[in-house]
Amino acid sequence: MASHMHNEIWKIMAAMYSTPSKHSDVLFLVEGRRLYFYKQLLCLVSPVFKSMLCLDFKEKKTRTVNLEGKRFTDIVILLAWIDPALAFKIDEYRAETLLPLADEYDITNLRQTCENVLCDCSPNVDANVVLRYLKLAEQLNLKNLTQKAIGRAAELNLTVEEATDSTCTAISDSTLAALLEKRVQAKEKRNYFGMGIIRTSTQLKVTTPLIECNTNSRKTANQSKYSAFTGLTDVTIIVDGKRLYFFSDILRRTSSWFAEKLDEISGKGKISLDFGSYNEISTMLEFLDPTKLDTHFVNVRTTLGLFLLSLEYDITVLHEACEIYLKTNISQFDEHDLTRCILLADRGQCSELMTTVMRETTRYTLPKLKATESYKKLYSDTRLNLLKFKVGDIN
Q1: What local confidence, expressed as pLDDT, does residue 48 receive?
Q2: Which residues pair with 255 in a beta bridge?
Q3: pLDDT digits (tens, 9 = 90+) for 132-161
Q4: pLDDT: which is higher, 65 or 10
Q5: First vs last Cα of the chain: how many Å apart?
Q6: 93 lies in which domain range?
Q7: N or C, where is the chain less crowded by C-beta within 10 Å?
Q8: How confident is the model at residue 191, as a pLDDT?
Q9: 305 in a domain, yes or no?
Q10: What count of other Cβ atoms lies within 10 Å of the Cβ of residue 384?
Q11: What is the rounded distance in angstroms from the CA atom of residue 343 to the CA atom of residue 354?
């Protein structure tokens, strides 16, 4: 079932890039087939593509990149990851596919993301998969994946014969030595406890934050990543009297509102925003930026602000990410967050989020909810549904 779903998703992505769009300006030739994409996005994420398309190479003149030796399916997946219009999830299968490409084209954050995915999967893979991970980690010098895969291989009691079997991809002597050391340590630990000598250590309770913060998003208004013009930025966004510089291709791909504005100014120039603060717009741009590592929302309040921006500027990929985060972290809402989220879910017609939030309102008394500013702004039918939840007529 999963394989069929992957195949269907791949067909949709392949069709998306097989036909030129109004703004696509780079042609890839792969296995005799054509793929169309966007120079700005490629240059933004990959120094290798930037050199090809901006320096004195033939690709700069022809805007055509011939990817000999590459598989069409793999390049489609790579373009889908780069495309900011898609909420592209990297699973273990795609991570194995994308890692060599990320290394070859020097796409640092993709390389890191893929390594993290394989590290997370390592504790559950079988011997054949762990050997593939070890070989891949060796080839690309992925230290974290090497350690994780060695640990899993030791748990599986992978023997020297299995690790060096000619029918599979053999690992190097240094990796094999590290694997054997890990197995020895595990055996010694078992023997140590087997003799009845058990040493207990004081259990320390480690308190981790409920929300993983992206420290980069704590910049002040004068420290925004996008406050300085670069060679690839081609749009100036003016908000609160300050300037932010960003990329037209990203805005076109992710937001119909921005796409319309860019058409009005012929694709270049300045866009003034009346909705959203400087810091909020900076955080929104950081989310859309394909050069970032995985985005971590700072907290519920910030995410509610981004959710509102996604509705105002019609940014589906941000809308979906915010909705997932809000449903996952619903227990952290106070009464003000709950009523504001109901208001936004109503505006965005998010039925699942609406149901989740209304169920959570049972934690608060009606007077507390009614005292919030957002409650007073709810539509009458929404307020009625909320009251039905409160009395138990709707579950």
Answers
A1: 94
A2: 315
A3: 898 899 899 999 998 898 888 888 877 656
A4: 65
A5: 32
A6: 2-190
A7: N
A8: 54
A9: no
A10: 11
A11: 9
| Residue reference for tokens 């907290």 | 299
Has residue 367 been placed in a domain?
Answer: no
Distance (Å, whole) CA 40 – CA 50? 9
> Which amino acid would we find at residue 33?
R
Tell me whether residue 222 is in a domain: no
pLDDT tens, position by position, 280-328: 999 999 999 988 766 677 789 999 999 999 999 999 999 999 999 999 9
Percent of the chain residues topping a pLDDT of 90: 51
Distances (CA, A) of 332 to 57, 98, 370, 376: 53, 36, 19, 22
**Number of CB atoms found within 10 A of residue 126's CB:** 9
Q: What is the pLDDT of residues 238-273, one digit of tens each?
A: 999 999 999 999 999 999 999 999 988 875 689 999
In a domain, 142, yes or no: yes
Q: What is the 3-state secondary structure (H, E, C) of 285-331?
A: HHHHCCCCCCCCCCCHHHHHHHHHHHHHCCEHHHHHHHHHHHHHCHH
SS3 label, residue 271: strand
Please report, for the domain that includes residue 164, its CATH number.
3.30.710.10
The arithmetic mean of pLDDT across residues 167-180, rounded, is 66
**Residue 212 burial (CB < 10 Å; 0-12/13-18/19+)?**
exposed
Cα separation values, 203 from 200, 206, 207, 210, Å = 9, 9, 13, 21
Number of domains in the chain: 1
- Both tokens assigned to 320: 């979906």
**Contact present, 286 and 254 (Cβ < 8 Å):** no
